[in-house]
Structure formats: C-alpha cells, structure tokens
## 1
Amino acid sequence: MRKNESGHASVVMVVLRLLCFLLFAGAFIPALNPARLSELIGENVSLFTCALSYSSIASEFTRALQRGWVEKSAISTAYTGAVLAALGIAGSMGVFCVSLGKLKMKRLSAAIGIGAGVLGLSSTAVLLNAASMFTNSPNPDRIDPMMPVGVWVFAAVFAVQIILCVIALMFLPKPTAEDRYEIEARYRLFLMMLPFLALVLIFSYLPLWGWRVSLFDYRPGFKLSMDSFVGLKWLRYLFDNAATRADIMRVLRNTFAISGIGIATSWLPMAFAIFLSEMRSNGAKRFVQTLTTIPNFISWVLVYSVAFAIFSTEGFLNWLLTSVGIIEAGTNYLMNGSHIWLKMWAWGTWKGLGWGAIIYIAGISGIDQQLYEAATVDGAGRFQKMWHITVPGLLSTFFVLLLLSISNILSNGMDQYLVFHNPINKDSIQVLDLYVYQLGLGAGGGSTSNISLATLVGMLKSIISVTLLFGANKVSKWLRGESIV
Amino acid sequence: MAKTEKYKGTHFKPSAGDRVFSVLNGTFFALFTLVCIFPIYYLFINTISDNSLVASGQVNLYPRGIHFNNYVKLLNVNDLATSVFVTLGRTVLGTASMVLASAFVGYLVTQKKMFARTFIYRAIIVTMYFNAGLIPWYLNMSMLGLTNNFMGYVIPAIISPFNIILVKTYIESIPAELEESAFIDGAGYFTVFRALMLPLSKPILATIAVFGAVGHWNSFTDSIILMGSEPKLYTLQHRLYIYLTSSSNLGKLMEGGSTLTASMVESVLNNRVISLTVSMITIVPILLVYPYMQRYFQKGIMMGAVKG
C-alpha cells in the first residue's frame, strides 16, 4: 500500500519539477512578461530583467510622470509585482532542487512549493492592482495600459503548483525516525552542475529561439506578431531577389576563395615545423619558435594597426621602396583593392604560421628516433628521411586539421575582415560572417539593415556547417577509424 | 629531437649540400622571424620619436628625437582611461570566473555518479561546434539586458567548452585513489574539489587562465556589437579601432586633395601618434605575460587534441 502511494507521489513530483522548470523558463520570455502592464514597457523585456532593474520598467515613463499621466506609485507597484513574481519563481527553483532529495527533502520541497505558490499568487494580485492604477490614469491613451497574458499564465501555473504540492504532501508517506534531510550523491552532483547547465542553456541554446525571426518581417523596436509573420518570404527572397542573389554569390565567392587559399596552403605549418626541426642549434630553434608565435597573440585590431603603420603612405614600406629607388612616391597600399584574397591570406599566415607549427613540432618530438637511425644506416639522405619518416608521422594530425578546416569552410570569422574592410576593397573582402553582421547590425541597425534576412543567412550557414562537420567526421571514421569531434 | 642532433653531429661530417641547405634554411627562418618581430619594434620606435618626423614617415629603422611625451599625453586623451579600466576589469573578472567555472564543471563531469552525466557533458561540448548565429545571439543578449552592460562581457564567457575539456582530461589523469581516500575520510564533493582538485590541477588552470586573459584583453567585436550606445564601456581595442579608422578616413581625405582645415590636419597627425601609442600599450601586457604563457603552449595544444 505504502509503495503504491509513493508511486503516485513520484509522478506528482515529476510534474511539479516540470512546472518549476516552466516557471523558470517563462521568466526569460518577454512575451510572457506579467509586468508589462503598458505598451511603454519594452516588448523585449523579460520578467527576469524587470525584476533585476527598476529602470527597465520605469525608463519610458519620464514624460508620463512629469505630465501626471501616471502615478509614481503605479510604477513602483508594478515593480513590486515583478519582484514578488521573481521571488516566487526563485522559490519554485528551490522546490526543483530540494525535491530531488530523499523523503524528508521531498516533503520540505512541497512545503516550500506552497509558499512559493502563495508568493506568486500575491504577485498576481499586486500586478492586477498596478494594472488598475494604469487603466485609471487621467490620460490612458498616452501610456497604453494593457493586460499581459503572462499575468494569467503565471497565476495559473502558481495555482497548479500549490495544488500539486498539497497532493504531494498527502501522498508522501510520513517520515520515520531514520529519515534524514539528505540528497543522493547522483542528484547532489546534478544540482551542483545545474547553475552551469543553466548558463549553457541561456547563452548557447536559447539563441536558437531567435531563429523564428527569419519567419517574420522584423523591425527593431516592434513586436513580433502574427501581422508581421511572413513565413518563408525571406527564403524565397534570397533566391528571387536579383540584388540579394548577386550579393550572396559575391559573398560566397569571397568566402570560398579565402577559405580555399587557406586549405590549399594548410600544409605550410607542417613544412614550417619540419624545416625548423632541421635547424642545428636548439637555441636558434627556440628563438625562432618564440618570436614567430608572438603575432598569434595580438588582436586583429593591432594587426591592422601594424598594417597601417607599415603600408600607409608614410609607412615603412614606402620608405623602403623609395629609398631603394623602386618607386618614386608613396601610395597607401591599404586603399588598394587588388589581390585582397591573397593579402588576407598573407596576414592570416603572418599571424598564425608560427602558432600553427607548434602542434607539428610536438608531433615531431613524438616520432620514434630509431626510425631515423635505421634510415641513416640504410643510407637515406636528409630529404628522404623528412619525406619518408617525418611527413608520414605527422600526416594524421594534418588530416584531422584539414578535415576541420574543410568543415569550417563557411566560417572565416569576422574580426580580420571587419578591421581590414574599406570602401575600396569591400567587394572582395566581404565574407559570409562579415556579410551577416553588416546586413543585420551594420550601419547601426539603420534602414538598410535587415535582421530577418541576416538571421536566415546565419541560420543556413550554421546548418550547412554542422552538416559538413558530421560529413567530415564520417569521412574520418571511414578512412582512419577515428572520429574527429 | 636532442638525440637526432647528437647523432647527426657525431657520426657524419656535413656535406656541401648539407651546408647549403643549412644556410638557406637558417636564412629563411631568420627572415621570417624578422618579419614577425620588426613591426612591433617599428611601432615602438615611432611612439618614442619626434612626432613631426613620425607623421611624415621619417622614423623607420631607429628612433629619432627620443621623448616619452606621447605616453604621458595619453593620460589626457578622453575616454582612454575608462577603456583601460573596462578592459582590465573584464580581463580580471572574466578570466577568474571562467577559470573557476571550468575547474568546477571539469571536475563535476568526471564524477561517474552524476545524474545524466553523459548527456550534460555532450550538451556542453556540442555548443563548441554549433551556434545559432550572430544575430540570434545578439537578440538573445539584448533580451537578457546584457547589451550596453558591462556584464555582457563576463557572463557569456563563463562557460568555455574547450577549457572544460582541458580540465576534465587533466583531472582524469590524476590517480583516482587520491580522491577515493579523501571520500573515505569523509570529505564531501566541495571539499575534494577545493582541497584536492583545485591545487592539483593548477598547471592546467594556469594554462586556461593566461589564454582566457589574452582572449578578453584582445576582444573587440563583442564591444562593437553589444556596447554600441554606451561608449563608456568600449574596450581598449575598440577604442584603438576607432582611432585607426578615423585617422585612415582623414588620411584618405588628405590624399583626395580635399582642403583640410588646420585642425583636421592636426587631428590626422594626432590620430596617427595616438593609435601607434595605444597600440603599444595594448601589446605590452601581452608581451609581459608571453614568456609565462609560452611554458604552457605545447601542453595546452596537445591536450586539446585529446578528446574526452
């Protein structure tokens, strides 16, 4: 009998935890913000933000307060409601955690759950009070009072939570003398992990929710409503609109060209490492390795600063060439739009060659020295040893890096191209990452920006990239029997 | 490597071809090293030379008219001090929180008892290879109120999957008996982490700390994307980027033969000197930690190649 009862109780507990999680997630969804009692409160503000900062609610009311359209107390009441709701949600998160414990903890969690639910319902009352203060404003047209759906959603969830907690208390058996307040190790570890898991969810998985923007006609500062829902319009636009299609073709050409040059020269770090290891003096080797790695640690802005110092009209190169007598007057090489792909590759190589070689240098020191000795005895020369022993020894590392760079073919990164781009080279420097940035956020989000289209392009890029990565992984498994990711 | 050297040296006399090869090889590496290092030297001599000579491009191989006023003058450049402060702040806070989080998460994922351990670990690692894209990330950050907010630099960078892998791999190489005996002695997970794992994994934590710090110090795209309307929060690199683009734009006007007012010419000169000097002060901290970092390169890279 008792066993059966705890069976019911565990089902209730699972549902309760689910509710608590939903409450937690709801706090981050702006559309469900119960504190948005007026259109003046930003539609991108979630309950979480509201409860954290008073100004997120009050910022747009400065004028309304001055003109007496709304009482200050209405705003502070709304804020109090937001804080109470957030506290209720925090309590529910406590329920989630404590309910993972043993019997006594479970009972405790149900008790907390009732408290949190009451707190949540009281927040509903406070918010309703604030809402009536907004509606009773002398000039409602100016402050656009509204009744957010979130108020009712949260009230309903809190009410259900109270009911579930009461049921759980009824079903959970009375604790005996041996029961203690404790949590099993597996759940204790899980709870320790939970805050970090939440960070991962919020910063790496929650953005996926933003993909919905690609189905809307998004204008910054306006609401995503069914009015602006356009379905696959932007996908069709991508292929039907001649100007956009031309842009995309140009951008893809740049992306593939720059990535392609990178892939075609991806053996350079390996060659660098092999030839470096042929140097006699260990001191010289370390010297070269130390100094050639430095550029990897300076940012692209600084690389641009270096480029600016060396290649501008007053720069070093012009001085060198004029003093040798090759040219007569200096020019600004950065304002020259030719061979941009090669120049970008050259900067990338300047910055990354020494660094890229380190992994191969480590690889070379891992090759069995007896192989070299045996080869020498067999009369192999320096180049034969390099080609027949060192290169094969490094090939598997090379192969993994090659596959990774092929699967990254669409991702050149943005930093380098952002700092080097200018009106003269923009046609050949705009790679996909830069294009997405400029299309969506460039020009300060002005009239030329198109967030929806930029989201769509970025989304397609992500999907293709991950497909390529899995493809590369398959190839690697098939050829070497080892996966790369 | 050392063995081969000895071997080559003792048993065979280098042939003529060998010698030619060595000379060519050495020359190449000498040149490439020079190409890597000369620009930094060039920046440096330009910041300590006479400013009018610098502006006309006459300081090329050695400093002329040495003075250090430019560095003193930077103190008076608006907003630069705040930028230094913001950048230092994010570097310290961001690195500390990232290292602690990586250490703790790296330790937790080695605990086989954890509920849903494999799933959680994979969910974290997958984010290294897959992301929603720039715009959804930006919209998310603005939804969370992290745009134009200093915490926007720190909080998203707390979780770093790659560093978590590094720590996890390192902790797995620590003999399990140590941990077991601590548990037998009645230590809890926090105690084992604090008193055992944290001190034992110091080398790898130092590695990720220096790399994390350099990353924070060097980053500027997040400043450009997130802090658009809050110039007080611009990082040093963002500031430098602004100086560089404005001096490049003014320089272009000059070349185009547009008539410039004296103040514009003055600001071109000023900008060139300022951006050179700011460049130096952003490079110097990196050069200072560089010898320390170098000890960890190989370790960090090789461990990254080991997947967990």
Note: Confidence is low (pLDDT under 50) at residues 1-10 of chain B.
## 2
Amino acid sequence: MAEGHPLSATLQLASFVGEFADALDFLFHERESVSGQTEIGGSELFHLTGNHLALSAASVGLAALIAVPLGLVLGHYGKGEFAAINASNVGRAIPTLVLLAVFVAYLGIGFVPIMLSLALLALPPILTNTYVGTRQVERDSVDAARGMGMTDAQLISRVELPLALPIIFAGVRVAGINVVATATIAPLGSVDSLGTPIIAANVYGRDGRLGAAIAVTVLTLALSAGLAALQRAVTPRGLKLAPTRSRRHRLLTPLRRRAEATP
Amino acid sequence: MSPPNTDSEEGSVSGGNVAATLEFREATKRYPGQDEPAVDHLSLEVPAGEICVFVGPSGCGKTTAMRMVNRMIDITEGDILLDGTSVRERRPAELRRQIGYAIQQIGLFPHLTIADNIATVPKLLGWPKDRIDSRVDELLELVSLDPHETRSRYPAQLSGGQRQRVGVARALAVDPPLMLMDEPFGAIDPINRERLQNEFLRLQQEIRKTVVFVTHDIDEAIKMGDKIAVLQKGGTLAQFASPAELLAYPKGKFVEDFVGADRALKRLALQRVRDVDLWKAPLAREGEPVQGLRAKISDADIDIPLLVDDAGRPQGWLSKRAMSGERVTKDLRSPAHPVVELDDILRDALSDLLESEAQYGPVVDEHGRVQGVLSLEVLAHALQIPPDQVPSGADAAPAH
Amino acid sequence: MLLAQIQFEQRKGDTCESENGFCPSWIGDNFERYVDPFWQHVFLTVTAVVLGFVIAFALALLAHRKRWLIPPISVTSQVLYGIPSVALFLLLLPATGRGNTTALIALVSYTLVFVFVNVSTGLDGVPEDSIDAARGMGLTENQLLWRVEVPLALPEIFAGLRIATTTTVGLAALAFFAGAGGLGEPIYRDIGFKSNVAVAGGLCVLLAAVLDLAILHAQRMLTPWRRATP
C-alpha cells in the first residue's frame, strides 16, 4: 500500500483502535491464557490491583515510618541538612529499575526484597519534605512555643508536625505515585502486580500487555488525584486561610515541591 | 499593691498570682569566640508590679538580657532571681510556663484557633477544659476583643493589631507573676501602636504584673516604663532610673545623646493635664446675675469668664458686652477652643494650644464638665517640677 | 492465577558465574557487551533532554507573555508526568511502533514538567526593581527578556534542567519496553546476576552523575555573579 494513501491511514487507525478495544476487552472479560492453561483477564485484575496496592502501601508505610520521625527530629534540631536535602537528589540519580534489580540480585526474589527496594525509593522524598516542612515553620512560632515552656517533644508534636503536615504529605504523595508506578515492574522479583501481564507477555499476550498498561495508568492518575484531595484535607484550616500568593504561585507550588523529590 | 478597681471582683484577672520581684545580680552572657560579652555584669532590681524597660541601640544586649530571665539564653556568670529564687535552679520548660512571653513577631500558631492559641500554656499545665474556656473568654475581653467573634477564628483572619492583642492575652493566660515583652508593638503602624500602648498601660493598672519590656525606641521606653534601664554596646548598664529622672539628669554623653536634645519636651509626655495645678476660671451661666460673676472673676486666675451650659460644658469665652446688663447674655468673644481633657498628656495639650494659636483653653473631665484652664504658663511651670514628683509609666495612664 | 515467570539465564563457567555472583573476571571479559546499550542510553537521554528543554522553554516563554496559558500547560505536563513510564511506552506502541520514536516521545513528555515549572518560577522570581530599572533605561520587551529576565532566572532554569536530566537517565532504563534498548535491557534480561546488575546499574548511576556535574559546571560558567562575594 502506498505511503500517504487515505485507505492506508484509515486501516492504520482501525488497527490502532482495534488494539485498544482488544485491550479493554481483556480488562473486562476473562479469557484463556496464550498457552491455554489458565483463565486470565477480567476479574483477575482485582487480584492484581489488590496486590499492587498492598505492596505499594506496605512500602510507603515503611518508608514513612522511618522518614517522618527522622525528618522531624533532624528538622527540629536543624541537624543533617545536607543529607536530608540531598537525599532526594541522590535518590533521583538511581534509576528505579537499577534499585529494584540490585535488591533482586543481592537479596533475592519475593515480597520482602521488592518491598524494601520500593521503600528505599519512597524514603528520600518523604525525608526531604519532612525536613523542609519542619524547618519552614515560622521561627517566631517556635520561639514563642519555647518561651511558653514547651519541651522539645511537645514542640515537635504540637507545633512543628501539624504545621509541616501539608508538606510532609506532599512528599508522601510523590513517594506514593512513584512507588505505584514502579510496582509495575515488581513481577521482575516474582511479586504479582498490575505489571504481571506486562512482564509475563508470553502468558498474557499483546492484549494483556496493553490492557495492563491502561489499568496502571488509570490507577496512578486516580491515586494522584485522590492523594491530592487528601493533602488538602490534612492541611490545617488556619493555614488554608493564610493569605496565599498569586494564583500563579498556587498553581506552581505543588509542582515545585514535587520537582524536589524523586520521580 | 492590689489594683483598686479589680480587687473585689470575682475571678479577677490578678487572681491568685501576685507579681514577682526580679533581680539581676551581675548577670553576664558571653558567647564562645566573642571578645566582648553580650551582657556584662548587669545588676538591677525590678520591684513587683512595675514595668522595667530595657532600652538601647541594636547590639546592646537588651534582648539577650531579657531572654536570660526565662532561660531562653543561659546565663554565663552571675544570677537572676525571681522572687528571691535563682532561675538557674529551675527546669527551663517549667520556669517558662510561669513567665508570660510576648515577642514582636507574636509567633501565633497559624494552625490553631485564637482560643487554642491562648490556651497553649493552660493546656501544658493540664487545666480542666471548662476552666480553660472561661479563662480564654476572660482574657479576650481583657484585651478588648469580642470572645464570641474571635474564639474560633484563625490568626490569618485577624488584623495586625488584633493579633498583637491575642499575643498579649496568650502571654497572660496563666496569670504569670512576670511578663517578658520583646518589642511587642514594634511591627505595628504608629497609630495602632499608640492605641496598643495605651491599652496595655490601662491593662497594667488592673493586673499590676512585673514586666520586662524591651524596645529600641526611647519614646516608647519613656511612655511605658516605671523604670528604664539604658544599655549600651558591650551589654553594660548606662543608667537605671525613672523616666523623669532619666530626662532631667541623663548620666553621661551616651545617655544624653540617646535620650535626645528634646528631652525637656519629652518630659511633657510623662505628665497628664490632671497632674498639674490648673488655673481657676470664672464660670458663667446664661442669665445669672452679673454681680455674682464679677465676684468670681476677682477670685479667679484669669479675668475672662467662661460660659458653660447647664451640664457644666464649656460654650465659649464671654465678651465685655455680655456683662453690660443686669444678667449675663450669651455674647461670645471667642469659642471655647481648644478643649483639653484631664487625661491628655501635656505634650498633646501644648500642641493643641499652639495649633489653635491660643494662650489657654478650658480643661474638661470625662463628662465634659469644665475643671479648670490650662495655659502656656501652667505648662512652663510643669517643666520645673522635680523629677521625683513626676509620675511615670503605668501611673500616668489615663484612668477609666 | 499465575506467578510471573522470571527467566534466569544459564551461564557456563566457574562457580561465581553459575551462582550469579559478583565476578570481576567475568565483568572484565564481558564489558564490551554493555558499550552499545550505554551509548544508546546516552543518545536517548541527551536527545530527550534537549528536545524537552527546547519545547518546555518555548512554552514557558510563551506563557510568560500570555499568562492564561500557564494553567493548561502545567496541568497537561503534570498529567503526562503522572503516567507510569512503563505504561506510557506500551500505550504509545500501537501508534508509533517499537523503537526510538516511541521512547523519545515518552521521555520528552516527562522532561516538560520540570523545565516548564522552573523556567516559569525563575522568570517570575526576577526582582521587580531590576525589571523596572531595565524598562526605565529603555529596553524593549525582547531585550528585557533576554538581557535581564532570562539571565537572572538561570539558576532556577538550570535546577530544572538538572532534575530533568537525572530523571531521564532513570526513565531511559525502562525504554527497552518501547524497543529502544538502553542499559535497562541487559538488567531486565538477567536480573538475578549480581555482576550484570552491578555493571549496568553502575553505568546508569555514573551517567546520571556525570551529566549532572556537567550541567552544574555549565551553570557556574554562565552565572559568574553567583560566585561573587563582597
């Protein structure tokens, strides 16, 4: 068929649409696997999505459990600024595939090594944001709190943590999105996720591959929107009322914070 | 030293805690790696219930000296005694909860409501909820804020002046015997600063706290202080005196320069119209017999009669023609302008007289009744009152 | 339900290799098999960053003049960035086929957000008095942009470029899903072999570090006033 022929373009479009239609069919209806032994697609996606989210939640949870207290303490005492700030830069320089591969090669396959590698991926943005969030609390509020007789622990829990919460949560959001995106390649370590149809293409075929890609995209974007809403919810009311800078800045600020963390 | 207008009230703000005495004993702060100490052997005593102002140029150690009291900065040498007990023997957090603390940038917690901000220290001390609630309302009223309107608002929703009031209320929350105030009105525009200063002085008349007040503004120091400690570079005490004494006898060139060339005029800011001997004016009412008025004139310091209405409010200065008949007629030579109030400070009264190009003006009380006449001569005389007879700080505050 | 099957390549040789260990001798013997993927990785990264920078910079300049463009552009670039890279490679395959085109489209779209946001905030952060002084001296809007605003925004612009570059190095490691090779391919093929992961992974990190330092150096050269101390 000649280049640029209208028929050729139409056919290409038809095959393009067809591929997506087949992929969507994979998502909504069970079918036999390529090798013909098992049921794939359709309701199996619930299992894969559940596993994907459980793995991601465990990883981000572990990372937050370490990074938030560490960031708060470092930020409170103003120690370790260089490390806390550069954690994100270093984290960004290590490709997610490499991180995961190092854990698989050196610790082995299975849930724990994969979860640890994803937790390590989630750690830097949460640590950096917690540190920055704690440091950006108005020095006057901190001075007043001390002057009124708050102990270090009270100062952290009653003043610094609540005021840093929106920024901490921005870090958790970035980490969460990264981890959910990266959990797509978790099957490389023999842990099932929505990436299973992508990695095990010999079982799931082209439709499974594209269908899983669609599912992962929808999941990530929905999660991103959900976490953004949650971030607004954890922002103390008194902070929302504070005079904001221009509309422009409001639009740009979350992006900027995001840019500080590992994608 | 119980305040006259609150001692009988139930739950009065000066409640159980009386004011504390504060004594600096050779208190010194040295920072490692610096040759000069930040505060150098500072010794002074602040009696209970008085406002002591630390004033001086930047870098004189005034804030450092204040922050040593609640151990926000640790003392290197010497001691500070609060009610006779060394602050060094107290745990910092516990000590600070008993000392009110208000700073220039206020440091309100943006994530907490006004009520929760004020309740910070009561909560640290574990007060029951209903006690905290009633205390918050009481404090808001004390600083002239409407509790219902203000309680559940956030700092971002208040104006600068309102926030400053909340800062003061928060510092007063547990009725501390001592307040530390670091340029508390420094970030406020001049008009609101003056209003807040007056409000605080009025408040101090009620609560009679011991206050350490830091400022770099000599006018504020003169206005607010019972005693003023002038500090100079190197953290040494240049002079510790009452405002009037400081203005009358500044010690050395540094204090003289710092106080300024207009110190005689500044003294007028210390006295109120009610503090000086006013002239007696012949008061006339419309229709009263001229005969009687003539007798009053011979008895007065001024020979022009002042017409007043039935309530005793000034109407104007009478002309000669008003007394030409049997009875006094309303025939004015000039309006009763300017009218000065007993609570006005002399500096403002002088300014009013000069502005109206008048030699004298009637003085009225809070009901507008004539109490006497203030003249330029009376003002000139006021400048010769010896400093120990000039009231200061909170004492000069207008009465209710 | 089916567990993903991981293929471990069988290697003949000494015990170190058959046990998937870290074997310096194997690395020495087989290093040349990483050379082509490495250069492909460099090609993907540099091309994507250059294209992405040009596009995002142009968009940011446009949005600097026409402010209403900022929300749609930033939201679009944010959504693009939010799509997991593996998924985006696969989603593009039906339209653009396997190869560099698909990989570059995806990688370029990921760089947009960093460069656009940083150029925008950089231009916004130029002190008003500098702009006012420049206008007062008679600079045209174009002269103002290129002689005052862009130079003063350079630190922010470079920060965005650095983030975009290190990120792209990482994302290019997944470009093999689009059939464009790169250092991810050998990692993926033999993920259990320590030597393999160490070499390919190490090269990735090294590339990110070298490119980052190079850009940092360029920034220092271009913004001498930042080093000036009174």
Note: The longest helix of chain A spans residues 44-77.
